[in-house]
Design brief:
- The protein has helices at about 1-5, 15-20, 25-35, 40-55, 65-75, 80-90, 170-180, 200-210, 225-240, 250-265, 280-295, and strands at about 130-135, 145-150, 155-165, 190-195, 215.
- With about 300 residues, it is α/β, with parallel strands linked by helices.
- The protein is elongated, with a radius of gyration of 28 Å.
- InterPro entries: HTH-like_dom (IPR025948), Integrase_cat-core (IPR001584), RNaseH-like_sf (IPR012337), RNaseH_sf (IPR036397), Transpos_IS3 (IPR048020), Transposase_IS3/IS150/IS904 (IPR050900).
- This is Integrase catalytic region.
- GO terms for molecular function: nucleic acid binding.
């Protein structure tokens, strides 16, 4: 209404207000509020600045649920609906993943491993269930193949590697990196993949046997049987790649490094992890485990008898 009055200064304030049936006291109260914003508006303006910072720090990825979670971690307790409203007013929004195209190539002569997971992608502790898959990143030099292993407990990317070729050497190198970075007890870990020829290769299956790792594979042509790995590709391609075609494989590799090792593992909070990042979730687990062990090792005081 004040904008309408400002747009017609030649008519005068009172005639415009009379035509709009608005009391002059109401108009001047609005004018005063514009000059001296109320406490709620000042708080909204300050909060919007913090929201913009959280949103920018995430690379424009976080929507209102994660922004709300980050602010709570920083000691700022506001309602979820208020965050949604302020983000909408500021033109800020998160990014939603989209399902991509699969690249599984099955070897008809290979004997697949049994499905030991049965779509239950949960684990009570780290290094009990790893899921793995391949995907392709477009570059002007040609395709760059990305292989990754994800821990079902924390959803952490345990290891990843890239190559110009989607072969058994790529998935084997990824496995070697994972084994070098984690403590795996023989017989306790399941390695779950699809029916791609890389995962049924003699090289990989032999290495799994030597490491005491149980091989597992889902059914043919069903992404739900490797859903946790497929979900990782949706996240990476939505939040990191975003439809880009990189000039070189080296540039794509650097972008993946900055996202996976610089953001996803250490900083990207997830609702299923209690709005912690994968590394934070694992650190919390190991900290609670250490505390429990200290309690169990604490010597008990002898009971007093009369």
């Amino acid at each position: 209404m004040t904008a309408l009055v400002d747009a017609h200064p030649h008519l005068g304030v009172e005639p415009v207000l009379r035509e709009l049936s608005i009391p002059s006291s109401t108009y001047y109260r609005w004018r005063q509020a514009e000059k001296e914003p109320c406490e709620r508006r000042r708080q909204d303006a300050e909060l919007t600045g913090k929201i913009r910072q959280v949103h920018a720090d995430s690379g424009g990825i976080y929507g209102s649920p994660r922004v709300h979670a980050v602010l709570r971690r920083e000691g700022i307790h506001v309602g979820r609906k208020r965050i949604e409203r302020l983000m909408r007013q500021a033109g800020l929004a998160g990014i939603s993943p989209r399902r991509g195209k699969g690249f599984t190539r099955r070897d008809p002569d290979a004997e697949p491993a049994p499905d030991l997971v049965q779509r239950d992608f949960t684990a009570n502790v780290p290094n009990r269930l790893w899921v793995t898959d391949l995907t392709m990143i477009a570059t002007e030099e040609g395709p760059l193949w990305l292989s990754a292993i994800r821990d079902a407990f924390s959803r952490r990317v345990v290891a990843w590697e890239t190559s110009a070729r989607a072969d058994a050497d790529l998935v084997l190198t990824t496995l070697e990196y994972a084994l070098a970075s984690r403590e795996v007890a023989p017989g306790e870990l399941i390695h779950h993949a699809d029916h791609g020829c890389q995962y049924t290769s003699v090289k990989l299956t032999t290495r799994l046997v030597r490491a005491g790792i149980q091989a597992s594979m889902g059914s043919v042509g069903d992404s739900f049987d490797n859903a946790l790995a497929e979900n990782l590709w949706m996240v990476i391609k939505t939040e990191c790649i975003r439809g880009r075609v990189f000039p070189t494989r080296a540039e794509a590799n650097l972008t993946l490094f900055e996202y996976i090792d610089g953001f996803y593992n250490p900083r990207r909070i997830q609702k299923r992890l209690g709005y912690l990042s994968p590394i934070e979730y694992e650190e919390k687990h190991y900290a609670s485990q250490a505390t429990a062990e200290q309690v169990n090792l604490k010597p008990r005081q002898p009971s007093l008898t009369s």
